[in-house]
Model the fold of this input.
Amino acid sequence: MKARARDGAEEGLWLRAEKQSGGIGRLGRRWESPKGNLYCSTIVSCRHEYPAPSTLSFVTALAVHKAIGAHLSHKEIWLKWPNDILVSGLKICGILLERSGDAVIVGIGVNVAIAPEIDGRIVTSLHKEGSKSDLTAAAFLETLAQCFADMLDLWRVSGLEAILSAWQQRAHPLGTRLSTSGVNGERLDGEYAGLSDDGALRLRKPDGTLIEIHAGDVDVG
Done:
């Protein structure tokens, strides 16, 4: 997709892999890629009048949330900052943004048929959570592509405030206990206090201090 972006590929193009030999997640982590799950990417054109390109992570999370909800309407689906989607409290998706000139490559991985075994983490899949057993990665992408187009339009027309409002409505409740770890390994505990105007995580520490987290991993509980 990066190569196609450099060659002038237009927005709306999606690429899907049956499997990956070198999938990566956030912070360079390995992303397990067994056949049967969704591994896809798309391209988004960025202009100065649009919200910050980094906030496409919220757009993408909302799109995946909506797509999963279309197939798991009976399940509890939560968003976790910065861009995780949890079903029954378990991770089901990975999102990665990469800049390429005037465009952003949005990479999405969703466990459709298989919940890979990952050291230190329990994950789930659409099939495991009760979707139709014949749901394929290709079919799920059809749902996702439309949801993404809808959310991208909201981002451009109504702005970041509308996106963050929609995101917070689908996130864990205010006051949920969170633990964060930054890129330097520092660990902070506190309560979820919503998002800042630019999408930073607001965390209320045990002493009442309110801080903003701009990067890092978050655990619930």
About this structure: The chain has a mean pLDDT of 91. The radius of gyration is 17 Å. DSSP finds four helices and twelve strands in the chain. The first strand starts at residue 14 and ends at 17.
